[in-house]
């Protein structure tokens, strides 16, 4: 029997014993608890290897780093912020703010349109004025949301070091700046694809310090007006805030092309409104069909596991984030609400002139996103669920609305006695909207779970009546 003490620091010599016997961890009574223990052992061993032989690493810190991806209020990189100021020196501030007002009025139409078809009929053509308006209104928010999504990939797959990136619908290049922030040392080629030459001209200025002939701040960035039809693949393919301007048929064709060009991760990001969620949901359904067809045609003689970090096969993949499954989305099934998340950013040039934003001091960008990975989902990730809304705190309990691997949204209650002290503290103090939460409970004790059933909401009788009444009383007191 192998014992992992999660309350104490674990050293290299202990990890050697645990890793040699990790296949024997099934001796634990709870299969779900076994998966989490196996994950903690492997992740802690990797941390010890990175930080130096014999260095103690506490499991509590590893849990926090492994499951939490939220960022503090995100600001533009200093070089990009200086470039924006330099560009504005050559334009009238009144002109820039007027263009920004027009763009924001246009974007507000999205909330009033019922279908993406109605929205597509009134699209803007991005010229010089629209490019300037995008810079003074949306650059901060799009950069913050993209950085948050890419940060999750870096946190969950620390050994992934992309060398090539395809940015489809790049606009002002916020995704390129986010990739440069996270993986600057490993990158050697960026491909920017955008139909608007005016947007690309302004993006080049920003990469050159705000001037036409300045020094390149990000090297090896290439531009094409349309998506290349060649067979080249890229380690990371990003389409941020571009699918919402397409018709449903064009969206599916574009997603097909992007997936064929993907070597490891495909990232889709849209605004967190009805149109944005519809685009992400449609792309998700289409990609799941593609993955099912690829699985049928794939030779299963050699199974690929994502966690081995070997070169992935040309076919097969899974939903990496935010969904922990490839089943029907619970928001689509209930036809109520959107699957969206939030990231705080500093105020843009336009927002700094608005009293309601100045009083708040920051802006929360809501977005919907999808990350698809080549390979197979690691088995231990079935012990995680996505936090769909900010957790509700009460006395000694935390109520979380989650999306677990079974495809049905749940409301789960975490307490010290049923979830364990470490898990409870992590969920209460270190978990934010959009993070992952563990589904594990202390062996012999189960948490209160309210699940979404076919005929409404059903309560699982996982605990005795006394425990349930005590939790209800605590909620009523709050």
Describe this structure in words.
This protein is of the alpha+beta class. Helix content is about 40%, strand content about 20%. It has helices at about 10-20, 30-50, 60-65, 80-90, 95-110, 115-120, 130-135, 140-155, 175-185, 195-205, 250-260, 275-295, 330-335, 355-360, 415-420, 420-430, 465-475; strands at about 165-170, 190-195, 220-225, 235-240, 260-270, 315-320, 340-345, 365-375, 385, 390-395, 395-405, 410-415, 435-440, 450-455, 455-460. Strands 1, 2, 3, 4, 5, 6, 7 and 8 form an eight-stranded mixed beta sheet that branches. Strands 9, 10, 11, 12, 13, 14 and 15 form a seven-stranded antiparallel beta sheet that branches. The radius of gyration is 24 Å and the shape is globular. The two termini are about 45 Å apart. About 40% of the residues are buried. The model is unreliable at about 1-60, about 115-120, about 300-305, about 305-315, about 440-445 and about 455-475 (pLDDT under 50).
**What's the number of extended β-strand segments?**
15
**Mean pLDDT across all amino acids:** 75
Percentage of helical residues?
Answer: 40-55%
> In what range is the share of β-strand residues?
15-25%
Give the low-confidence spans: 1-62, 116-122, 300-305, 307-315, 442-447, 453-475
Radius of gyration: 24 Å
Q: In whole angstroms, how far apart are the ends? A: 44 Å
* Global shape: globular
Structural class: alpha+beta
List keywords for this structure.
15 strands, 18% strand, disordered N terminus, eight-stranded mixed sheet, 17 helices, 478 residues, alpha+beta, seven-stranded antiparallel sheet, single chain, globular
């Amino acid at each position: 029997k192998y014992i992992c003490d999660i309350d104490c620091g674990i050293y290299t010599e202990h990890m050697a014993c645990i890793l040699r016997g990790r296949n024997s961890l099934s001796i634990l009574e709870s299969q779900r608890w076994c998966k989490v223990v196996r994950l903690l052992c492997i992740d802690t061993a990797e941390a010890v290897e990175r930080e130096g032989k014999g260095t103690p690493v506490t499991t509590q810190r590893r849990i926090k780093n492994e499951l939490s991806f939220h960022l503090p209020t995100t600001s533009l990189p200093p070089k990009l912020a200086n470039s924006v100021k330099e560009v504005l020196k050559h334009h009238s501030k009144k002109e820039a703010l007027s263009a920004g007002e027009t763009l924001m009025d246009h974007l507000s139409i999205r909330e009033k349109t019922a279908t993406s078809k109605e929205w597509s009929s009134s699209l803007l053509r991005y010229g010089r004025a629209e490019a300037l308006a995008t810079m003074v209104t949306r650059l901060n928010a799009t950069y913050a949301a993209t950085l948050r999504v890419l940060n999750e990939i870096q946190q969950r797959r620390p050994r992934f070091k992309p060398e090539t990136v395809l940015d489809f619908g790049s606009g002002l290049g916020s995704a390129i700046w986010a990739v440069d922030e996270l993986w600057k040392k490993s990158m050697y080629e960026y491909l920017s694809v955008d139909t608007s030459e005016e947007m690309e001209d302004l993006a080049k200025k920003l990469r050159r310090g705000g001037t036409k002939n300045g020094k390149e701040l990000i090297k090896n960035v290439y531009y094409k007006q349309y998506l290349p039809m060649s067979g080249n693949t890229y380690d990371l393919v990003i389409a941020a805030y571009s699918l919402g301007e397409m018709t449903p048929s064009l969206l599916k064709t574009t997603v097909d092309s992007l997936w064929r060009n993907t070597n490891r991760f495909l990232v889709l990001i849209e605004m967190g409104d009805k149109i944005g969620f519809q685009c992400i949901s449609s792309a998700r359904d289409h990609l799941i069909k593609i993955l099912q067809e690829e699985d049928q045609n794939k030779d299963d003689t050699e199974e690929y596991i994502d966690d081995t970090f070997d070169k992935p096969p040309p076919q097969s993949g899974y939903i990496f984030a935010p969904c922990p499954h490839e089943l029907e989305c619970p928001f689509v099934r209930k036809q109520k609400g959107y699957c969206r998340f939030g990231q705080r950013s500093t105020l843009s040039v336009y927002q700094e002139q608005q009293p309601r934003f100045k009083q708040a001091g920051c802006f929360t960008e809501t977005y919907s996103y999808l990350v698809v990975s080549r390979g197979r989902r690691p088995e231990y990730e079935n012990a995680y669920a996505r936090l769909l809304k900010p957790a509700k705190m009460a006395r000694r309990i935390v109520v979380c609305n989650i999306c677990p691997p079974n495809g049905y949204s749940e409301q789960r209650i975490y307490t010290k006695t049923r979830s364990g002290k470490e898990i409870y503290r992590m969920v209460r103090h270190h978990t934010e909207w959009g993070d992952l939460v563990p589904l594990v409970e202390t062996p012999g004790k189960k948490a209160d779970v309210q699940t979404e059933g076919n005929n409404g909401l059903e309560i699982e009788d996982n605990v005795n009546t006394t425990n349930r009444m005590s939790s209800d009383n605590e909620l009523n007191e709050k």
